[in-house]
Amino acid sequence: xxxxxxxxxxxxxxxxxxxxxxxxxxxxxxxxxxxxxxxxxxxxxxxxxxxxxxxxxxxxxxxxxxxxxxxxxxxxxxxxxxxxxxxxxxxxxxxxxxxxxxxxxxxxxxxxxxxxxxxxxxxxxxxxxxxxxxxxxxxxxxxxxxxxxxxxxxxxxxxxxxxxxxxxxxxxxxxxxxxxxxxxxxxxxxxxxxxxxxxxxxxxxxxxxxxxxxxxxxxxxxxxxxxxxxxxxxxxxxxxxxxxxxxxxxxxxxxxxxxxxxxxxxx
Length: 267
Prior knowledge:
The protein is an alpha/beta fold. It is built from three helices and 14 strands.
């Protein structure tokens, strides 16, 4: 068996009855399925929750679980994943050497069915990593009190090939954590003065306490630079008009390479 489809992402589909399925390496069905499964679709199984282990599925390429209540998914190390869709309830996001996962998906329309003007439907089924309330919010401003933020408290990216997107997810989680901490400090200062909190401030306090889970981060050997390294010896004699060259400044930031600046020489 290569394709396990129990759920569906088709508009209007819902399944509230299905709650559990064991695909772990040591499960009774593992000898039949674990090494062959390439696609798993749990979309819109709204009663499917808790953690899920598919680490025995060594050839898994597609995993879709939007519309579920899963809190974490354990994938095989050095997996072949190309497409991963995870729900907003995910609290632990861990990827170790996903060899074929090269981008995140920031547009929710790229993972859903979209209704066209002529009343037909287009199924966007883009490859990449999509985590509801995370990857679709990477460039958004953090607004204290907004409940539509990711529930992630553990973030691990080891040996990933998603380029700068790995950093974008990390930076977003950091900004969210700072917003939570600032809200907690502000509310604590008001309470220390004996101030009676307004309903809005009480709501912010509740939000901060709910969103304040310990954020543990591990990122190792992530290929996250958006540029390809070019050795000085192999640089072209003249700048290539089809490419933009950058140089690392102060060991921290990149800047556009100026061949006419002092010390720079293409020859």
